[in-house]
Amino acid sequence: MMEYSKKNGDRAPVASKPLKVAPHGLESDIGSKVEVEINGKAYKVPIGMTILDACKKQNIHIPTLCYHEDLCLAGVCRICVVEVEGMRSLQAACTYPITNRMKIKTSSEQVRKARRHVIDLLLSEHYGECYSCHRNGNCELQKLSKEYGVDSYRFGHVIERRHNVDHSSYSVVRDMDKCVLCKRCVRTCIDLQEVGVLESTNRGYDTTITTFNDLPLAEVICINCGQCINRCPTAALRANDPSHFIWEAIDNPKKHVVCQTAPSPRAAIGEEFGLAPGHSMTKQLNTALRMIGFDRVFDTNFAADLTIMEEGTELLLRLKRSLVNGDKSVHLPQFTSCSPGWVKYIEHFYPEYLDYLSSCKSPQQMFGSLLKTFYAEEHNIDPAEIVTVAIMPCSAKKFECNRPEMTASGFKDVDFGLTTRELAQMIREAGLRLPELPPSNFDDPFGEASGAGLIFGATGGVMEAALRTAYELVTGRTVPFENLNIEACRGMEGIKQASVLLTGLKPEWAFLEGVNLKFMIAHGTANAKKVMEMLKAGELADFHFIEIMGCPGGCIGGGGQPIPTSGEIRKLRAKAIYEEDAGLPIRKSHENPNVNYIYEKFLTDGPCGHKSHKLLHTHYVKRGKYIV
Amino acid sequence: MLLSEKNAMTEEIEELCSNYGSYRESLLPILNDIQLRFGYVSEFAQQEIARVLDIHPVEVYGVVTFYSFLSPKRLGKYIIRLCRTISCDMAEKSSIARVLERELGIRFGETTSDMKFSLEYTNCLGMCDESPAMLINEQVFTKLTPHRVAEIIRKYK
Lengths: 628, 157
Prior knowledge:
CATH class of the largest domain in chain B: Alpha Beta
CATH architecture of the largest domain in chain B: 3-Layer(aba) Sandwich
CATH topology of the largest domain in chain B: Glutaredoxin
CATH topology of the largest domain in chain A: Rossmann fold
Number of domains of chain B: 2
Oligomer: heterodimer
Radius of gyration of chain A: 26 Å
Helix content of chain B: 40-55%
Strand order of the largest sheet of chain B: 2-1-3-4
Number of strands of chain B: 4
Number of domains of chain A: 3
Largest sheet of chain A: 5 strands, mixed
CATH architecture of the largest domain in chain A: 3-Layer(aba) Sandwich
Largest interface: A-B, 22 and 18 residues
CATH superfamily of the largest domain in chain B: Glutaredoxin
Order of helices and strands of chain B: HHHHEHHEEEH
Distance between the termini of chain A: 36 Å
Shape of chain A: globular
Distance between the termini of chain B: 27 Å
Number of strands of chain A: 17
C-alpha cells in the first residue's frame, strides 16, 4: 500500500484501506497464517491478506476492473465477487480481508451469474462500438465481455452520446461516454499523483467523472502527466493523437520529416507487439521509423547529453555564486526541469518556488530548437520545411511542444509529440512487425549518444548522468562507483537521497573543496509534493541538486507508454535501460563527440553561454491553482 | 465577484473552519452553513474551503454536486421542489408541474430572471399519504391542487 501525506488524514475511507484488520481473537495473531478453503482446496494465507491476493498467489483467476495494483482499493465495480460461506451476499474479493478460517468459492453458479450481470449492466451504459474505439484489442471491458461470453446487449445499449468529447487539452482527451465509473483515474489523480483534477460528481445515473466546475481539461490544473490514461480500463481517457498530421507530413515530398526518439519508448514499445516487458527495441525501431518514411532518425539521448552539460554547468555556476561570491539570492537546491508534468505541477502548486527550477529546456525542446537552427544551416534546409516529431513516453510533451515560449528557432521547435502507443499504431498501420525488423543505427550528426543520456528514462537517471559528468569535470577523476553504476540513484523508492564528498579538486574548482554534494531524487508528483513541503519548511537548505520526475518510475512509467502498467513492468523497463547503458562504449555526457562538436561549431560561447541561453533555456509561467 | 465580497467570503469560511476544525469531516457542516447564508456555494467559496481544509477543490465540487440541497450555482430566493416519486406521480403531479411552470414562466431546473424562484424536482419527501407534495425552501405543502398551487405562488410573489 502506498503512503499518503495529507495533513488531515487520508482521503481513502478506512474501509478501502484494509490489509491491517484486527483478526479474531488476539492482536498478536497479526502476521500469523490462517487456513482457508478456496474451491475445495485448503491453503494457508497470512491474516489480513485480501481474497484477491490470496487467489493470485495460488494462480486462481478472479476478474477485476476497478482494482489496480498501484492504487488504493475501491471495491466499486463488483466484478470480482466471490462466494464466502456463511455470508448473506457475495463479497468483493479485492477488498475482503481474510481474518479467520473461511470457505471461498470463486466460480460457483451464483458467482458466474452475478459477474455476467455486472458486465451486462456496465455495457448497458457504455456508448459506442468496439470497431471504432481507440482501445480496440486492449480494453478491459472488452476482455471481460469475451471472458464471460457476452453475446447480446441484454439490458440495452447506448446509441446516443450523453456527453461531449473534451478535446480542449493538448495532451488528454476525455470521452466520458466510454466511462465505466471504476474511479481508477480519480484515485490516480488524487491519491497517486496528488494533483486533484478528476473526481466523481453528481449522483446516481447522473454520476460523471469530471473536473472542477465541469470545466474543459485545458482550463483546470491538469499537469498532463497522463497517468490516468495508463490506468483507464476503457477508452474514456486517451492521449491526443497527432498521427494523421504526421502521416500528412510524411506523404508530402516537400517536407523534411525528422524524428527524435526518447530512451523510454524503445524500452517499452515491444510490449505493444506482444513481447514481455523489458526488451529494448532501439535498433529495430530505427528501421521501422525509416520504413514509415521519416527522413532522418535521431536520438534524443544526444540532447539529454546536452542537457547534462547545460544543467550541470548551471548548477556549478549557482554553487560558485553562492560559495565564492556569497550571493544570498542564489536559489539552491536546483531542481531538474526535464519532466514537463513536473514543470506544470510546480507552476500550478508552488509558483513562488519557480526560481529553484533549472532554466534548461527539456531534451526534447533543446533538440527541436537545434534541428531548426544548427541542423537546418549545416544541411542547407529551409527550417520552414522541417517537421520535427518527438517520440516520447509522455503525454505532457504534447503540451510542452505547444507552449508559446518554445519557439526559439523562429518556428515551432517541435511540431508534434508522439507517444509510444501512437507510434506503435503507426508501425502497425505501415504493415511492419517491429520485433522481426533488421537492426539499424541512428542517423548522423545526432546519432551517437552516451549511456548517460539513455538512463534519463528511469527515475534517478538524470542525477546519475549529471554526477558522472560533474564529478569528473571538477576532480578530473571518474565517479568513485563500480562500473560507473551509481546504485544510490537507482530503484523505485519514492524519495532517495545520497551525497558525494568532493575532494582533490582541480585548481579552477578549488572553491568546492570539501563540499559534500547532497542530492535527492523523487518521482511521481505525490513525492514531489513531499519534497516541496520539505523545501518550504527549510529542511533542504543544505541540498544542492534535486531530480524530480512527474510520473511514478520516471519516463518509463510515462503517460504515453503501453498499457497496462504496474510496479513490476516499470522495474523491467528500467532494467532494460540500465542494461543497454552498461553495454555502450560512451557512458558519460561530456565524452559524447557530437556534444563537443556542437559546442565547437555552433554554441561557441560554451554551456550556459549567450547563444545556448537563447536556444536551450526557457522561462516559466506562474500559473497558480485558483480557477477564477 | 467583487474583491470585497471575496474577502468577506474568505473571512466567513475561515471562521467556520475554526468553529468546526480544519478536518475533512468539517466539509459538510461548512458547506451547509455557506449554502444557508448565501443560497449557493460559489466557485470561489469552494476553492477557499478546499484551501482551508487542505483538500482538492474538485473534491469539494464533488460533494456539492452530490447533495441536492447544496448548489454550485446561484438559485432563486425561493426554491420550489416538487416531488416526482410514485405516489405523487400517481396523484397527478404533472398537472401541478404545468401550473408551476406557467405561473413562474420557467421550466424545471431554471431560475426566474429576477432571482426570486427556482424550480426543481425532488425525490420522495415522505408525504406519500398527502400527495402530491412540494417544498418551498423549508416549508412543506401537501394535497396540492392546480388551484391551490397558483394561490401559494401568488402569495410568495
